[in-house]
Amino acid sequence: MAETPVSVVVLTFNEEINLESCLASVKDWASEVVLVDSYSTDGTLSIAGRYGASVYQNKFMDYSSQRNWALRNIPYKNDWILFLDADEYITDDLKEEILRRIPNLPVGISGVYLKRRLIWMGKWIKHGGVYPLYLLRLVRHRNAHCNPRPVNEHLEVDGETVMFNHDIVHDDRRPLSQWTAKHNRYAYLEAHELLQSENRRRNGEADPMARLSGGQAERKRWIRERIWNPLMPPLVRPFIWFIYRYFILVGFLDGVQGFVYHFLQGLWYTFLTDVYWLEMKSKSKD
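Above: the chain sequence. Below: its structure as C-alpha cells.
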C-alpha cells in the first residue's frame, strides 16, 4: 500500500497490551509513526522499535498538556498528523479514505473529524448514543491545539473542518479493574470541573469551550453548562442519564455488554462524579 503524507502520533504509558494492534493498523500507509511516551516500564518501547516508530519521551501531566507538547515540540515530516490512542486502531476503510482524500484537501481545511467505534467486552456498542461519536483527530499540526481540560480534552483548529465517513476503533484490552481505576480518577477531575463551572455561573462568566454553534464536543459542553448541570439535581441526574441512554436511545439492544457499559459509564461514573462534587462543595464551606 502506498504511503500517504500523514504522521501518526500515539501517546503511551505502559501500553504493551494494546499497542501492537494500533501500530499494525498504520505501519503500511503512514509515512511516519511517532510515540510520545511517559517513561513506560513495560514492553511498550520494544514494540515501538519493532514497528519502526520514533519515540519521544515527556513527563505526563495530563492529556491536554501531552498533546500540546506533541504538537509544538516534534519536527514532523508532514503537515497532517493523526492522533491515535494506544487502544485504538484504524479500519481498512478509513485507511483507504485517508489515502484518497488527504492529498486533495484544500489548504483552508485544517482538520478532519473521524467516527469512533467502541468495542466493549468484545462487542461493538452501537446504541445508547455511543455511535457515532465524531472526534477531531486528523489535523494540520501548525494550526491545531488541545483545549486545556484535565479530562475529556479535545483538539481544536484554526480553519475549516470536514468529516470522513469511516471509523477509528476503540478496543481497550486491559482488564476492567484498570478501566474502573482510570474512571475513578476521571470522576474526581470531572467533579472539580463541575465546581469550576458552578463558580463561573455564579460570577456570570461564560465557558469559552461551550458553543451551541460549534462541533459535537462544543455543543455537548454547552448543553451541560447551560441546561444539564444547573437544572438537573445531583445524585438524581445519573439515573436520568442512564434511563435516557439505556431505554430512550435503546442501549438495551446491545445485550449484556451494552447493559454493563451503560451502567458503568452512564450511571456509576456520573454518580461517582456527583458524590465527589458534593464532597468538594462541603469541604469548600469548612
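The longest helix spans residues 255-285.
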